[in-house]
Specification:
single chain, alpha/beta, Spore Coat Polysaccharide Biosynthesis Protein SpsA, Chain A, 3-stranded antiparallel β-sheet, 13 helices, 12 strands, globular
C-alpha cells in the first residue's frame, strides 16, 4: 500500500437527490486531500439526478464515474456495486443528499500512514443541515460516548449492540482490503450502516486486529429532509430485528429496541398506516413466538395509541391467539387469510356481528392447528 498518497475512492449513492448533487460533488472537489476518485450510482431516480451528475462530471476536480440502473431500493446492494467498481486502496461512502466538510479525508490519512493495519478511521460527531444547506446543529453525536472508552473492536461491538449504533459510515474511511474480505454489505439485510460496522468489528475480533480510530471531529453535513430513511420508524425496527436475528441470535434485545418499538407502534397504529401496521405485526409475532414479549406487554403498547374503550381482548379457541376488536382500524381480508386457516377465519367472521376484527398478535407456532367449535 502506498501510505503517503493512497487513492481514496468516494462511493456516492443517489436516489432523487438532483437538488443536492452539486453540493455533494463540490464538497468532494473541495477536499484538502488530493488523490481521490468519485464513483456515483443513481438508483433509478425519477428526477434530474442523472442529468445533474453528468453536468457535475465535467466540472469535478477529480475523475467522476457515473453508474445508472433501474431502481432496486437495496442500499447494501447498491453500495456493493460501487465497491466492485472502486480502484482505491481506501474507500468511503456518502449519500448524495449530504456533503463532506473540507478535511473529512485529510484528517484521517496520518493514521493509515502510521499503521498499515488500520481498518478504519471514523468520526464521533456530525453536523445537521436543513434542505437548503443551512446549519441546524454542529458537532453533534448520534450516541453518548462514554468517557475513556477504548476503541477496541470488542468494546465497539458491545457499544453497537447496546446503543444500536456507533458512528456513521458516511465520512469514515475504510481499508478496502477489509471491506472485500467481509464481502461488503449484506444484501439480504434491510440495514446498511449497522450491518457493515458489525461485520467489521466481528472480523477484527476474529483476526486479532485492533487498529482503528474514532475522532472527536465532524466529517459530514447530514441533511434533514422529508425523505430521510431514518425517519421511517417501522423500517428502523425491521433493520434491528433482522440484524439481531442474524448476528446476535442468542442475546436478548437491548432496552433501546423496545423504546423504538413503542415509538413505532404509537406512530403507526395511531395514524392508521396499513402497510406499516402489517410489517410491525409480523415483527411482533416473531417477538411473541421467541418469548421476547408477552401479550400483556403488547396490549400495553397498544393502549398508548388506541382508546381503552375501543379495545376488547379475546382468547378464541386456541391458547395464545390474541385478537383485538377495534371499531376504527381494519386489515384486509387477504391479510387475515394469510394469518388464519379457513375454519378459524370463518369462526371469526360469524362471531364479529357487524364490527371489524383486526388481528394484532398471535403465536405463529399454533397456526397449523385447526380450531373446532
Amino acid at each position: 500500500m502506498s501510505l503517503f498518497n493512497p487513492l481514496v475512492t468516494v462511493c456516492c449513492l443517489s436516489y432523487n437527490h438532483g437538488t443536492h448533487i452539486r453540493d455533494c460533488i463540490d464538497s468532494i472537489s473541495s477536499q484538502v486531500y488530493g488523490n481521490i476518485e468519485i464513483i456515483a450510482l443513481d438508483d433509478g431516480s425519477t428526477d434530474n439526478s442523472v442529468e445533474e451528475l453528468k453536468r457535475c462530471s465535467s466540472a469535478s476536480r477529480f475523475p467522476l464515474k457515473i453508474l445508472t440502473q433501474e431502481n432496486t431500493g437495496c442500499v447494501g446492494g447498491n453500495f456493493n456495486k460501487l465497491i466492485a467498481n472502486a480502484s482505491g486502496e481506501l474507500i468511503c461512502f456518502i449519500s448524495m443528499d449530504d456533503r463532506f466538510v473540507g478535511d473529512a479525508i485529510s484528517s484521517k490519512m496520518s493514521y493509515f500512514e502510521n499503521d498499515a493495519d488500520t481498518v478504519f478511521v471514523a468520526n464521533k460527531l456530525n453536523n445537521r443541515i436543513d434542505a437548503e444547506g443551512e446549519y441546524l446543529c454542529e458537532n453533534e453525536s448520534p450516541i453518548e460516548w462514554q468517557e475513556g472508552i477504548e476503541f477496541s473492536p470488542t468494546e465497539l461491538l458491545e457499544l453497537e449492540y447496546t446503543t444500536l449504533g456507533s458512528f456513521y459510515i458516511q465520512g469514515a474511511i475504510f481499508n478496502k482490503k477489509v471491506i472485500d474480505e467481509i464481502y461488503g454489505f449484506d444484501e439480504d439485510q434491510t440495514g446498511d450502516d449497522i450491518v457493515l460496522r458489525t461485520k467489521i468489528f466481528m472480523w477484527m475480533i476474529e483476526n486479532g486486529v485492533d487498529s482503528c480510530n474514532v475522532l472527536d471531529l465532524s466529517a459530514v453535513d447530514y441533511r434533514i429532509h422529508d425523505s430521510n430513511l431514518h425517519k421511517n420508524n417501522v423500517r428502523q425496527i425491521l433493520i434491528i430485528h433482522d440484524w439481531k436475528k442474524k448476528f446476535f441470535p442468542e442475546r436478548e434485545y437491548p432496552e433501546l429496541f423496545y423504546i423504538w418499538l413503542a415509538h413505532a407502534v404509537s406512530n403507526t397504529f395511531g395514524l392508521g398506516r396499513g402497510e406499516s401496521q402489517e410489517a410491525l405485526l409480523k415483527i411482533m409475532g416473531d417477538l411473541l413466538k421467541d418469548g421476547h414479549l408477552d401479550y400483556q406487554q403488547m396490549l400495553n403498547l397498544l393502549k398508548g395509541t388506541i382508546s381503552t374503550e375501543s379495545i376488547q381482548t379475546h382468547i378464541i379457541g386456541l391458547p395464545y391467539i390474541f385478537c383485538v376488536e377495534h371499531k376504527r382500524y381494519n386489515f384486509t381480508r387477504e391479510f387475515l387469510f394469510k394469518i388464519f386457516n379457513y375454519k378459524l377465519l370463518k369462526f371469526l367472521k360469524c362471531k364479529r356481528s357487524q364490527r371489524s376484527w383486526c388481528l394484532y398478535f398471535c403465536n405463529f407456532k399454533l397456526l397449523s392447528r385447526t380450531y373446532t367449535a
